[in-house]
Amino acid sequence: MATPQPHLSGDLRLALSVLYSLPTASDFSIQKPTSKEAHDYLMQFQCRNVRRKLSSKLKSLKNKTESSAGINILQSLEAGDVGSSWLACLGLLASHRTSTNQQIEVNYAEALFAAQTMVHRLRRVKLSEAIDLEFESPQSLPPNHEMIVDMYLQWSSTLNSTFLEVINKYHPQSSDEEAIKGELTVLSLTTILYCQTLSCNQDFSSIRPLLSTIASALAVTTARLRYTSASIPSEAPNTQPIVKMIINTLTMVHQVVSSTSGANPAHAAHAHSTVLFMCMSAIPDAILAGGDSGGGAYGRMSMDPRCFTAVTTEVRTQGLSQVWDSFMEMSSPSGDQLILFLEMCESWAKYVPLPKEFVRRSVVLIKQSFIELAISQPSQHQVAAGRAALQYWIAIMEGGSWTVEEVLASSLIQKYENSQQPNKKKQSSKSKKRQKETLEERTSQNQYVLAQNEVHHRSEMACEVTMQTWNAFRPLLTRELSTFSDVNDEVQGDGPVGGIIACANACLPYLVRQPIQNSELLQLFVSISDAVNEICSSAARSVRGFAAESLYMLHDIVMTVGFPTDNANGYSLQNVIVDHFYKCCMNLASQCGYPGDYFKDLRENNEEELEMERNDVRDVLRCVSGHSSSGKNQSNPSGTRVAFCVLVKLLEACAQPIMEVGTEGKQLFPESALHAFSALARPLHTVALHYHSSNSAEVDRPLSMALEIMCIAGRCIIQAFGQSHNPNLLPLSRIYSLATASLSPAFSSLGTTKQHEAGVVQALEACYQASVLSLVHLPELSSPSTLRSSRFDVRGAMRSPGGEDHVGILALMRLTTESLTLTSTLLRAIPLMVTDLCCLYQQLKQMEKERGKGVLHGKGVLPKSRRILLGVICHLELSSEGQAGASAVLEDLFKSSVLDIANVGNVQQAQLTPATFFDICGNVFDLAAFSKNMIHSLYDFNADDSESPLNRCLSLLSHAGVAGFNAIADPNSFSREYVIEWNRLRAALFVLMRSSGMPDLPHTVTDLVKTNIVTECIAVLHQCKMGPRSGSAVFNDEVISDEVVPAGLMLQVLGEILETADTASVPMGSLTNTIRILYDSRSTVLQVVVSDCPCPIEKGSFCDPRPTIAETWFLAMNKLLKPLIAQGFFQSAGRDNDLCKALQQMLVESCVSIIILLLYPSISKTQNKRANDAGMSFDGAQTLAMMEFLHLYFSLGPSMLQLVAIELLGNVPVDLTSVQHLGTDPNLAGISIIGAGLFRAAQGGLPPWAVECIPSVYSSFFTALNRDPATFAQVFNMAIHIRLGNQNFGGVQASQLLGGKYFQSMGDKSKQTFISQATELATKNNPKGWLRLKALIKKACGGKKKDTDFKQKPAFTRWDALDRI
Questions:
Q1: Are 523 and 516 in contact (CB under 8 A)?
Q2: 3-class SS of residue 799
Q3: CA 1190/CA 329 separation, integer angstroms
Q4: CA distances (Å), 1260 to each of 1125, 1191, 1197, in order?
Q5: Is the dihedral of CA 779, 782, 788, 790 positive or negative?
Q6: pLDDT band at 1029 (very low <50, low <70, confident <90, very high)
Q7: Distinct helix (H) and strand (E) counts, the chain
Q8: Which of 197, 328, 385 is nearest to 274 (CA)?
Q9: Which residue in 67, 275, 394, 1338 has the fewest CB atoms around it within 10 Å?
């Protein structure tokens, strides 16, 4: 007779066999599923929660009937609800390796999945839901305690005889469902774990992951049993401490099995101790870590925070002592038991402060294991024990580097990851802020003091362990470092290299914080420092990469903690710290230099790993020589002294090889010296500022040294330009220009001091000449750029790493724009500078012409770099008040560009070819590079003089700027090259127009801007009429798109003009041209915004420009609204004028457009299901702009809200009879459409990230309702009930609720409860209340939308790179 199996066992095993390619049992007669079907089934199997599903159904029925009388919820069970996930998993685990029934032989992968599923369920939900035995054969809910015990006994007899023996010993202490299920689970899991261990002989390692997973499930179960929401602040009745509960249960199981199975006593005792080690190892990882054991969001336990705090407090304060007491009765571990013991110690050391006695006894085992591992040919067991000891050692060190915040968070907050390993994923700033706020709320003064004590204890234990084991550990580090001979060798962070960095992180800050009383502790600092220095000088880049973290940590401590410069015994801690920083930095800097033949082939890409390391090394040098890695200003005198001493020593080391060139006549100096020096620019600026106020003689030395380095290095480079080609000149010239740019603030500070005035002038002369020569002789690109496919470009690029401009230009720009003082000093030092730069500009432009169209490499610089130079010249001429001698040249250059555009021909008959567009585009970009005063002269002409070059120029730009839009209606008449070159002209016009505000746009350019906006919008509407599957010659990924040149360029210009005017407090009346353009184009723009063409998603369809147009429009409206609100514009007297009416109408129509858009979505979760929704996608930055607009608009007050209500009633065909019983005021009916739209947004109409804006929107909405709770409640009520008329509108079907489907099934009582709760929260009118209102609305509107395919929160479109098209 076949042995009965759990109901879900067959489907579960079939899905596992498909997914993991396992042998299929013979009784599986149904058709095999596909891999995807199997995967989906297993995901559903792990997460299914029939108990909660039925509870939700019951709640829904109560809402509808307003009563629960007579409801039998089990009648709602569906076919897929029958069967217990828990029992199916328990059956697989109990049958693995221990079943004598060949029919149900279980594969290891099946058992492991079952164990993982148990852990997942136990961590996600409470015990009564995770252990769903009652659904195997549903009879009643909730099940009584006799039913639960009977089911366990029934299935125990089927699955495993030993299991049955243990369960028979169980006697429940209460009738509580959670307690009975939890206690039976503890017994069953302990029995399975023991039996599995007992059954394995030589293959323990092969099933260890399974055993560890079962142990994790056991730990989580005991944690849930120990503390419940009902028992807090005390433990649950009839429970033992978590550790003792597991130990005592295991002891009982061991006794039962030993007495009934006839197992070998020695074998059983070994199994008992093995299981004990594994269970104790699992406790901290399963309860305190949260990240590695599955279940819940981010692997965290879904548990009452009060229970979690109680559980972690018990485990952290009592757990290890209880573990230690149990092992004190055992003999000293050896063999495999030693490895398990060390692994258990590591597990606890990761999360819990180790008692001194525990450390002192276990450190002997660590030291012995290190010694055995260090011998020439250790055995396999010695290697395993040594590695386990090393992991334990590292865990102690990592624990020693914990901060007070980390200690508090470990017990008060469930964190995703507690690992302190180097190079871990960093926590986001937003997450840090939330965690900090939570800690402040939950932390008492006593807890804070205890955390401080724990930090001290952890560091003290780390130092003690280091001192005890150093002589045994050091040979391991030396041996590992000797294995790295190549720069690309890889190192693992869990070896001696990672260990010494963890040791440095723990011990060095501790030794700085504590006064060093003897030479032994100082020697420990020196020993660790020497080891870290070896890391920094390693040939392998991955090894060196470990050092930065320890240097940053120590620097932060040094800068924040005061320490004595000399102790009683004469040992100088300051000197030791300075030497440590200095040696580490110089070793890192010397190891990251370019290899000798690196610049042999300039066409090769830069080595990404090398360039990233060089960036990292510069950051380290900049930090330890003065700048805090945390970005905070530190004022600790001893820390400042250390940073200054480090800076001086680094400068001396950098100066030596550079000075030798000047004295010995060598041609060029090592690039690594100048590279290290360039990183010190920011600390030097800090010193220069200090010198400026103090005139300290000591501070004078590093400043004089820096100026001398720049003079000598510059002269060497200048001299090298006149000699034969040297491949090392390019990197030296490049880094010298970067150093010039970085040192500009220091030059500016020192230029006003008499002591350094001459040195600054000499340095500026060298910097200027070197920059000019690099522009003439070193092309920006020696070969085609690869920045589109690589991160750091070709090696022959005179650019900063990953940058896009010639560094010689950047150096000149920084020198001339840093400050008026520095500009004045430059002009005095180099009288003919501006004239020379004009000649240089013309020379570079000639090189550009010689390269030919489209060729950007080989000689000269790119157009953008040349235009930056033009801006530098304009700035110098303005700074000299026209005395620099460049005015005439600049005027000629400006007129030349204007004439080149004007001479294209008659506007209507002009031959606009790709070549013509290319030339016009270049000239427009050139015009935009001039100063604003010169750009403004472009618009100063008589509009009636049609022959004026300026008039012809602007007329042609107006016509050419929109010419390409004709390709939408007639794509065959325009070549791809034509459209692309026209698109470049669009970008050029944008760059020119954004520099044209004075602050308002000139009246002579308003037609150009308006024509551009309206023509673009008409083109978009034409494209939309062709349908969402239509292609486009214009709106595609290569032309008008967010990645190339976005739509809405001129709207962005208007928005920037409004923002600039607001910053300068320009009154609205002075922006009439800008406002007039917005007003005149509003109808066309808003037609585009509310266009009902579905979002194109198919491959080959057009790239939708509507989101970007909507984004730019509403951002412009927001920039208009902010000053209007601040000035109380619409509330002020005398505002009944044309400007006020125009603003009012424009804002009202914009608001109406947003509400209409909110009614478009069908509230579907996936893009495919939303494919036929009317209108553009909301999954973009335009939604952020729209939500901000609603917040700002509602802040204008009740009168503006009523205007929108009136417009909405005229645009949305609602059935007013649906809300007549709630009120007859038509204004409130119109306002309820707004409320319904916001409800629809929360139900899935908007992406989840957009719904987070709801608090601010409702806050200002309440303001617009005069902060009247009664009106607010009435609007909410009407918004829930208002329906559409007898025709469809957007995503709302005729006669359906405007607010969405979730209100359709909500009972009247639930609606009233919802409205009253919302009104109560609104009445509070505070940030917390609005946040709670958001949560309330989301709950009423279907809860969190987890299964949507919306993207993450977007950033606004970037516009800064369009001058490089």
A1: no
A2: strand
A3: 70
A4: 12, 6, 8
A5: negative
A6: very high
A7: 54, 2
A8: 197
A9: 67
Lowest mean pLDDT among 49-53, 1020-1024, 1309-1313: 49-53
pTM attached to this predicted model: 0.83
Cα torsion 889, 893, 894, 896 to 10°: value is 130
Give dist(CA 1155, CA 1120) in Å, integer: 20
Distance CA 789, CA 785 (A): 9
The lowest-confidence range among 728-742, 1189-1203, 1301-1315 is 1301-1315
**How much helix, strand and coil, in percent to the nearest 5, is found in the chain?**
65, 0, 35
* Distance separating alpha carbons of residues 556 and 577, to the nearest angstrom: 13
- Per-residue CA distances from 1002 to 776, 947, 1005, 1061 (Å): 39, 20, 6, 14
CB atoms within 10 A of CB 891: 13
Residue environment code for 393-412, b if the CB has 16+ CB neighbours within 10 A, otherwise e: bbbbbbbbbbebbbbbbbbb
pLDDT at 1191 over 70: yes
Instruction: Output the DSSP codes for 352-371.
Output: SPPPHHHHHHHHHHHHHHHH
897: which 2 tokens?
């560009």
Bridge partners of 103?
none
Which tokens is 843 given? 């020379």
Question: What DSSP state is assigned to residue 287?
Answer: I
* Encoded amino acid at 242, one letter: I
Q: Classify residue 1221 by burial, with Cβ atoms within 10 Å: 0-12, 13-18, 19+.
A: exposed
- Cα torsion angle, 196, 198, 204, 209, sign: positive
- Please report how the helices 681-694 and 697-721 are oriented relative to each other, as an axis angle in degrees rounded to 10: 130
Given a contact cutoff of 8 angstroms between Cβ atoms, the answer to whether 1157 and 1090 are in contact is: yes
C-beta atoms surrounding 1139 within 10 Å: 16
Could you identify the residue written with the tokens 């932060």? 556
Q: How far apart (Å, rounded) are the C-alpha atoms in residues 349 and 337?
A: 18
d(CA 918, CA 684): 45
| Beta strand 1283-1284 pairing with 1214-1215 | antiparallel
Query: What is the tens place of the pLDDT at every residue in 1120-1175?
Result: 999 998 887 776 645 668 888 899 999 999 999 999 999 998 887 777 788 888 89
pLDDT for position 426? 52
- Asked if 1305 and 60 touch (Cβ cutoff 8 Å), the reply is yes
Tokens at residue 569, please? 């015994």
pLDDT tens digits, residue range 429-480? 666 777 777 788 888 888 889 889 999 999 999 999 999 999 999 999 999 9
Beta bridge partners of 1045: 1040
How many whole angstroms separate alpha carbon 129 and alpha carbon 287?
Answer: 19
Whose tokens are 């390796």? That residue is 97
Q: Characterize 623-656 residue by residue with b for buried, 16 or more Cβ atoms within 10 angstroms of its Cβ, and e for exposed.
A: bbbbbbbeeeebebebbbebbbbbbbbbbebbbe
Please answer whether residues 1176 and 1091 qualify as being in contact, where contact means their C-beta atoms are separated by less than 8 angstroms: yes
Centre a 10 Å sphere on the Cβ of residue 126 and count the other Cβ atoms it contains.
20
Q: Is the pLDDT of residue 325 over 90?
A: no
User: Which DSSP category does 561 fall into?
Assistant: S
The CA distances from residue 408 to 361, 508, 1099, in Å, are 28, 22, 52
At 640, list the tokens: 């400042």
Is 70 exceeded by the pLDDT of residue 30? no
What are the structure tokens assigned to 1337, written together?
Answer: 């609305």
Q: What is the separation, in whole angstroms, between the first and last Cα of the chain?
A: 79
Q: How far apart are CA 1173 and CA 1307, in angstroms?
A: 29
Q: Which residue, among 713, 696, 556, has the nearest Cα to 633 in the 3D structure?
A: 556
- Residue identified by tokens 């000093």 is 825
Residue, of 723 and 615, whose pLDDT is higher: 615
User: What is the C-alpha separation between 160 and 101, in angstroms, rounded?
Assistant: 10
For the stretch 609-641, pLDDT in tens is: 999 999 999 999 999 998 554 444 456 788 888
CA distances from 1037 to 697, 972, 980, 1047, 1105 (A): 61, 18, 11, 12, 11
